[in-house]
Amino acid sequence: MDLKNRVAIVTGGARGIGLAIVEDLRSHGASVVIVDAGVSISGEPLEPRIAEQVAARMEGTAAVCGDIAQSETAQQAVRLAQERFGGVDILVNNAAIIRDAFIFKADPPAWDAVLRTNLTGAYRLLATASPVMREQAKSGRAPGSIVNIVSTAGFYGNFGQGAYAAAKAGLMGLTRAVAHDLARSRIRCNAVAPFAATRVTESIKPANDAQAAYQGKALRVPAFYVARLVSFLASDAASHVSGQLFGARGRELFVFSQPRPAQRLLQPHGGFELAAFGAAARALEPGFADLVTDLEAFSGDPIL
Fold this sequence. Notes:
Blueprint: E1 7-11, H1 16-27, E2 31-35, H2 50-56, E3 61-64, H3 71-85, E4 90-93, H4 108-138, E5 145-149, H5 153-156, H6 162-181, E6 188-195, H7 199-203, H8 209-218, H9 224-234, E7 245-249, E8 252-255, H10 274-281, H11 294-297
Parallel strand pairs: 1-2, 1-4, 2-3, 4-5, 5-6, 6-7
Antiparallel strand pairs: 7-8
């Protein structure tokens, strides 16, 4: 867990889970570039210089105040990490906004904004930093680590969260692809689904009693446990771990299964006649996933 001489870039690192991650990485010796646009949870301008304010009071950090979905911001972050601290070893894609709406009340600009920040922003940083990380590994520097902060909404779903869930599911797919792309360089890429008190949790509008219970309990969960998991994944102790999906909910630590065939059915040549398809497909029903939201699935008491 010694991260001395390692350099991290953390997006959305000035508040909430991102700030907890920055603090834990620093506590283990890493230098950190904090990237934060200082926007509200819906992406509106709020505190545009907050990254600089956080960096000013935390030794071993530097700040980029900008939108990570812009190529220039990603380039600035990587350049600052190299010039100020000597390289790039750890990426944490944490920046996210949320603009909820039922699909039948969809707002296309809101969809674009969420996908742009939550998914394209991660892509920008990965595309900019990964060539640097590969060259460092070739020249003998210890291989680096990437952690993408996803959400259980991406694989359970939730009411009105089409854009947010799609972006987070896309980020999980990107995690797997990047883990393959960088495997030869021994750079690993993992995803973490966090459970903690955040602005996202505060913004939940419960649709039923189970979701209200989830929100009330989630607001008691400190972000520290998520941050410590990220620090572990960034360390050499996790050098054998890549392409995995983890979760941290207070003291509970998860590794999630990932979609694989759950049931198999062999069709006759030419396929089933439509009239017979329903009866035949019932053989697949034991593999069906329950249609529950992530808030309902994790509405039980967290272990603190």
